[in-house]
């Protein structure tokens, strides 16, 4: 009898320690999930001038990120420019930011922002088995509140903001121009997959066109790797390449047009969610590029973008901006020098 009890206890302990047997109780799946980071933030630079901006971005996550303030942050650095990555690792170490190198084919680099596309695809590939959600951002981003909407609810795989204003998109319900007709054709984007969105700066109603400066993706869907593939399809097309070489505007935005195919051909509409106006808020956009409204308040902003504004800011900008003094001063101490 005693021997039977001992053997039974051993069998029970073995069963509890066996991953295969634990799956029936859900314990193993919980352990596996716990090993994955819920969310990771990442950005990309290809110039020394971007280093301080990437640093401010990381600082703002640590300062204002709330429940995600301690999440992993990654900095991807172009390997086709001379930037001392060892020095960057030392600089960013206090913020617990990991630094990685990334590259892009030479043929791609004649198109603007190619390096960002390839870095995003690399980040997604590297993180697929160790995280659930990747937030891919441009370096000119500042967090001012906890980004709770980044923690995608079950069933959602992509959160986005529309393009800031309509420089290169197609109006909803209108026939696309030859540039976009070619893009839709090369990427096999179906008309029925298009949906409308409104640009925040000039209130244009355009076909689905996502702002590539802020992308929240569920890693398992492979959206950013598809972005790389679709971008390659576009820039290798002789017709589109000639259009881009003849028109610099098209050349600037080709990378962003590729994102349309990557998203629409990967997800259903129900898997996407548009982030609120408090995300990717374009600070002083009207002063830089023109807009039909002002962007001078950070009172309810979660993340803001400042683009080139602080290269030559209005000397009185900090007195004209609306918002909590501590947050205005935080920005002023870093960008208002």
In words, what does this structure look like?
With 337 residues, this protein is α/β, with parallel strands linked by helices. The chain has a domain at 35-165 and 209-222 and 267-335: Spore Coat Polysaccharide Biosynthesis Protein SpsA, Chain A. It is built from 13 helices and twelve strands. It has helices at residues 2-17, 19-22, 27-35, 51-64, 85-92, 114-127, 178-187, 223-235, 238-246, 248-264, 285-288, 317-320, 325-335; strands spanning 37-45, 72-78, 97-102, 131-137, 141-143, 158-162, 196-198, 205-207, 210-218, 272-274, 281-282, 303-305. A hairpin with a 6-residue loop joins β7 (196-198) and β8. The longest helix is centred in the last third of the chain and has 17 residues, at 248-264. It is globular, with a radius of gyration of 23 Å.
* Shape designation: globular
Average pLDDT for all residues = 90
CATH class of the domain at 35-165 and 209-222 and 267-335: Alpha Beta
Secondary-structure content class: alpha/beta
Q: CATH homologous superfamily of the domain at 35-165 and 209-222 and 267-335, by name?
A: Spore Coat Polysaccharide Biosynthesis Protein SpsA, Chain A
Poorly predicted residue ranges? 1-34
Could you spell the SSE succession in H and E letters?
Answer: HHHEHEHEHEEEHEEEHHHEEHEHH
How much of the sequence lies in strands comes to 15-25%
Q: Indicate the radius of gyration in whole angstroms.
A: 23 Å
Report the count of strand segments: 12
CATH topology of the domain at 35-165 and 209-222 and 267-335: Spore Coat Polysaccharide Biosynthesis Protein SpsA, Chain A
Helix content: 25-40%
Summarize the biggest pleated sheet: 7 strands, mixed
Named CATH architecture of the domain at 35-165 and 209-222 and 267-335: Alpha-Beta Complex
Number of helices: 13
Trace the largest sheet across and list its strands. 3-2-1-4-9-6-10
Distance between the termini: 81 Å
């Amino acid at each position: 009898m005693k021997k039977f009890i001992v053997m039974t206890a051993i069998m029970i302990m073995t069963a509890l320690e066996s991953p295969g047997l634990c799956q029936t109780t859900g314990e193993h799946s919980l352990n596996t999930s716990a090993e994955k980071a819920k969310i990771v933030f990442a950005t990309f630079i290809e110039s020394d001038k971007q280093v301080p901006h990437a640093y401010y971005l990381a600082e703002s996550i640590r300062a204002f990120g709330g429940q995600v303030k301690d999440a992993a942050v990654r900095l991807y650095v172009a390997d086709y420019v001379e930037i001392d990555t060892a020095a960057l690792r030392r600089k960013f170490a206090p913020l617990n930011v990991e630094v990685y190198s990334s590259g892009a084919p030479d043929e791609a680099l004649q198109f603007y922002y190619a390096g960002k596309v390839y870095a995003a695809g690399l980040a997604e590939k590297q993180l697929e088995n160790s995280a659930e959600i990747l937030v891919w951002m441009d370096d000119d981003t500042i967090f001012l509140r906890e980004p709770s909407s980044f923690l995608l609810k079950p069933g959602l795989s992509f959160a986005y903001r529309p393009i800031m204003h309509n420089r290169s998109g197609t109006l909803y319900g209108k026939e696309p121009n030859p540039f976009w007709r070619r893009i839709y054709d090369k990427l096999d984007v179906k008309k029925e997959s298009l949906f409308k969105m409104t640009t925040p700066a000039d209130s244009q109603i355009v076909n689905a066109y996502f702002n590539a400066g802020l992308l929240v993706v569920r890693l398992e869907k492979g959206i950013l790797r598809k972005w790389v593939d679709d971008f390659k399809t576009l820039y290798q097309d002789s017709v589109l390449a000639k259009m881009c070489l003849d028109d610099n505007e098209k050349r600037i935005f080709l990378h962003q047009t590729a994102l349309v195919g990557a998203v629409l051909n990967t997800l259903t509409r129900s898997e996407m969610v548009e982030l609120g106006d408090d995300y990717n808020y374009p600070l002083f956009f009207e002063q830089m590029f023109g807009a039909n409204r002002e962007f001078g308040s950070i009172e309810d902003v979660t993340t803001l973008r400042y683009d080139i504004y602080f290269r030559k800011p209005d000397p009185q900008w900090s007195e004209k901006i609306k918002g909590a003094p501590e947050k205005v001063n935080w920005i002023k101490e870093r960008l208002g020098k």
